[in-house]
Amino acid sequence: MMTVNEVSKLTGVSIRTLQYYDTIGLLKPDGYTASGYRLYDDTALERLQQILLFKELEFPLKEIKRIIDAPDFDRDKALSQQIELLTMKKEHLEGLIAFARKIKTTGVNKMDFNVFNTAKMDEYAREAKKQWGQTAEYKEYEEKTKNQSSETQKTAWKNLMLIFVEFGKIKDKEPGSKEVQLLVKNLQDYISEHFYQCSNEILNGLGKMYASGAEFTENIDKAAGAGTAAFVAEAIEIYTAR
Q1: pLDDT tens digit string along 97-128?
Q2: Across the strands, what pairs with 3?
Q3: Interatomic CA distance for residues 115 and 235, integer angstroms
């Protein structure tokens, strides 16, 4: 756990900015010291990294929050897309620098504005954004939660994680057993009630995400025991194949 002052020194993000991120629900501390100072764990720091990467791509804070809070946010995929966009931005800036140097040394021989064209980068960004929470399911989630307090939303996620804890308690059973399959149905119903309509197809995709080895896997296994995420994914695979 790191204090807000330590996080500020490590990241270069001011204490005032971190406090503001807390106020708008973008980056919540994991706890507080006895004196009331914010404390951040590794999960919060990973989220801060995502926030800063999106900021480098000039995303508004509100949009960053929407993207990384999306139930189907894929961190690894987002990183790949961010790398591509940052590479495009780098190439664009290098082109501008070379163009400016040419003007300085040789003057302007003809009017050339191609170097200012960002159409390719803009198009890639638009396509990436479509995958960052612009699905019908996310829009339904956004509609359901727009008037909810951050505490209500936090409770919904906490209760979702408790379902995974239940999976952890029975992961010694066959994933196709009646008890396990009933819990998969409970998981699907809970997602539909509190987030978005969870069809078998969507549930199947979520199962693959749970076992992808990324943040979802880490969080589930941390809460419910090692191997739980993979067990849930296998149980979902059986459930959706029926």
Answers
A1: 887 887 778 776 555 666 666 676 666 666 66
A2: 39
A3: 53
Pairing label, strands 38-40, 2-3 = antiparallel
Enter the pTM of the model: 0.49
Q: In what helix (H) or strand (E) does residue 48 lie, and over which residues does it extend?
A: helix 42-56
Half-sphere exposure of 89 (CA within 13 A, CB side): 12
DSSP 15-30: HHHHHHHHHTTSS--S
- What's the token pair of residue 217? 């896997």
Q: Which among 167, 184, 150, 178 is positioned nearest to 220, based on CA atoms? A: 167
3-state secondary structure (DSSP) of residue 90: helix
Q: In angstroms, what CA-CA distances link 81 with 89, 92, 132?
A: 12, 16, 10
Taking alpha carbons only, the member of 31, 32, 27, 25 closest to residue 13 is 27
Instruction: For residue 40, give the DSSP letter.
Output: E
CA–CA gap between residue 204 and residue 17 (Å, rounded): 39
Q: What angle do CA 102, 83, 71 make, to 5 degrees?
A: 145
Summarize pLDDT for 71-87 with one digit per residue, the tens.
Answer: 667 777 777 777 888 88
